[in-house]
């Protein structure tokens, strides 16, 4: 993972526009190169047992692949989460984010973060 590349805050709809570059695991969107993406939204599917959650950010949905200690958490549909992780595009599979997850304590917390980002 190249941490010198941006981890842009994106919407699911924007991720559909991203294209893989000639470099392995590097994506491009509007001239910005990235390997990781930052999304926020509501979990609409949270079985979690297979390490997959489904996030809806209001513009679309994306699978979240979680591993390790995060599988032990009690994920529930309706939870508001912020995720930053590697954006994965594999042949014959839907796009997914391999993530480290942080749970926002309330939906209001997530809205405050968004307002701060826009204002700063």
UniProtKB/TrEMBL annotation:
InterPro entries in alphabetical order: NA-bd_OB-fold (IPR012340), RMI2 (IPR032245)
Organism: Kalanchoe fedtschenkoi (Lavender scallops)
A GO CC annotation given for this chain: cytosol
GO biological process, one term: regulation of sister chromatid segregation
Protein name: RecQ-mediated genome instability protein 2
UniProt-listed Pfam families: RMI2
Superkingdom of the organism of origin: Eukaryota
């Amino acid at each position: 993972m190249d941490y010198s590349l941006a981890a842009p805050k994106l919407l699911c709809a924007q991720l559909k526009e991203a294209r893989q570059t000639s470099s392995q695991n590097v994506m491009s969107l509007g001239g910005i190169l990235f390997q990781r993406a930052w999304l926020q939204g509501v979990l609409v599917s949270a079985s979690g047992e297979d390490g997959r959650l489904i996030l809806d950010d209001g513009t679309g949905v994306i699978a979240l692949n979680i591993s390790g200690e995060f599988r032990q958490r009690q994920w529930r549909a309706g939870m508001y989460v912020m995720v930053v992780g590697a954006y994965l595009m594999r042949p014959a599979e839907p796009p997914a984010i391999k993530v480290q997850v942080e749970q926002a304590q309330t939906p209001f917390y997530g809205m405050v973060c968004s307002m701060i980002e826009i204002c700063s």
